[in-house]
Design brief:
Layout lengths: L1 H28 L14 E5 L4 H12 L3 E6 L4 H11 L4 E5 L5 H14 L5 E4 L17 H22 L5 E5 L23 H25 L6 E6 L6 H10 L2 H14 L3 H13 L10 E3 L2 E2 L9 H14 L9
Parallel strand pairs: 1-2, 1-4, 2-3, 4-5, 5-6, 6-7
Antiparallel strand pairs: 7-8
Helix pairs in contact: 2-3, 2-9, 4-5, 5-6, 6-10
Length: 331
């Protein structure tokens, strides 16, 4: 009897390993690479979270097309900026401090951009964190929700005027497949939990990424007819520092092992992960595409709640209050 159980267990494990291996091969061979060769000379782009990961690779790609790049990040970007200038021979690369966990910093950054730029062609809302040990920022918002969502929500509103001055402005929100793992409601939009467990931390990240999709869709609807298009993308599982920083908060060895294994088997490198962002930002085929959710450079189904018009409206209205939009700043 014991031998039968052992054989069954061994056979099951072997089958699972084969299935996972085939799945890994499928994912590796279906990674999309943007085929767009659009030249961006004369255009200006802002990339948040541009110091590392897919943000850096996106900035590097756009810079190689001749685009003026404004790198926005909370960390020191001097080395990253010089590397992009060196690799692309494009001197129009600028690094500006932006702390998305501070609404004041977002407003100061936007004010500086409004003074220095006469138009903005591309805004890539990419910066994000996976988890936070704190429950509240100085603005009274949850750090993950503020950095990933609320900060970008405010920034986009403040820069809409510049985007409208572009011939064809584009806004891209970086979401995630984990947007499908959410418990988002109007009540927990500004997540509040003093001692969150692993499930809470997972949900708040998923909620922030679902909120990004909802915001992109609502911006797209409100900006119809202005020439500005708005889309969201999920880059897949990418090997970026966001996971390393999340480990420290989770302190869960099983979670760490799962993420590490997943990254090893199906994880993309940052260049591969940036392809969807670049495609949404530059592809001529997407000139009139707006309100779409992309994965591997093609439209895909959104999380179910993103189709709930009333919930999207409620989240939008509450977000206006949370970030302190004035009547003049609202769309």
């Amino acid at each position: 009897m014991l031998q039968i159980v052992v054989q069954f267990f061994t056979g099951t494990v072997l089958i699972l390993c084969v299935v996972l291996l085939l799945f890994a091969f499928y994912l590796r061979f279906t990674i999309a690479i943007t085929r767009s060769n659009s030249c961006l000379v004369g255009k200006t782009a802002i990339v948040t979270g541009a110091n590392s990961g897919i943000g850096y690779q996106t900035a590097l790609n756009l810079a190689s097309r001749g685009c003026k790049i404004i790198m926005a990040d909370v960390t020191d970007m001097e080395k990253s900026k010089l590397d992009i200038i060196k690799f692309t021979n494009n001197p129009n690369i600028f690094a500006k401090h932006l702390d998305l966990s501070s609404l004041k910093s977002v407003r100061e950054f936007a004010s500086e951009i409004l003074k220095s730029e006469d138009k903005l062609d591309i805004l890539i809302n990419n910066a994000g964190i996976g988890a936070s040990e704190k429950n509240r920022t100085a603005d009274g918002l949850h750090p993950v929700m503020q950095v990933n969502y609320f900060g970008h929500f405010l920034l986009t509103h403040l820069l809409i005027g510049l985007l409208k001055k572009s011939v064809a402005g584009r806004i891209v929100f970086t979401s995630s497949l984990l947007a499908f793992t959410n418990n988002l409601s109007l009540k927990n939009l500004n997540f509040d939990c003093e001692k969150p467990n692993s499930l809470d931390i997972q949900f708040v990240y998923g909620n922030s990424k679902l909120s990004m999709i909802m915001a992109a869709d609502t911006f797209a609807e409100k900006l119809k007819g202005t020439g500005v298009t708005v889309n969201s993308i999920q880059p897949g599982l990418v090997k970026t520092p966001i996971f390393t920083k999340t480990y420290a908060v989770y302190r869960n060895v099983f979670y760490e092992m799962f993420i590490w294994l997943s990254q090893c088997v199906i994880g993309k490198d940052p260049w591969e992960g940036s392809q969807g962002l670049v495609h949404a930002a530059v592809s001529r085929q997407l000139k009139n595409a707006t309100g779409k959710f992309f994965g591997e450079c093609v439209p895909m189904r959104k999380p179910l709640k993103a189709y709930n018009k009333q919930l999207c409206k409620d989240i939008w209205d509450a977000s206006e209050l949370y970030v302190g939009l004035t009547p003049e700043e609202r769309l």
